[in-house]
Amino acid sequence: MSGNVLFILTENSHAASFYKMCEAKYKVKIVNNIDGALNLITKFIPDVIVYEMNYGQIENLKKLTRSRLQKFSIPVIVVAAENNLEFERYVRMENITYYFLYPVNVEEMDEALSSCIKQQGKRKYLWITEVKE
To answer: Which residues pair with 7 in a beta bridge?
Structure first.
């Protein structure tokens, strides 16, 4: 299965194992901040966004999800080092597709990525079919 995966990684990322796994299967782009991601989304058009978050970055997540929902329906997988009630509530409100806490099982992440990419493939096919008719 092929697909586009956009990683938004923190400076001291724990996602090296995910990146290596993805690099072998998907087209991968990496950015280190939300603005870089928002600029790249319209050019790269990812099938899924993996956002590695630190506590206190809820505003960045809001910026990402609101921008993404206005133009595209791109699934977002959030990976975080810690959890708190406020953050968990927000993740549920914004319909984040998957939410993982470190340490993340690589196989579970691969299943989540595959599921998101498969769903995006169906959406793209439906959209193209509708346009052709």
So the answer is: 30, 50
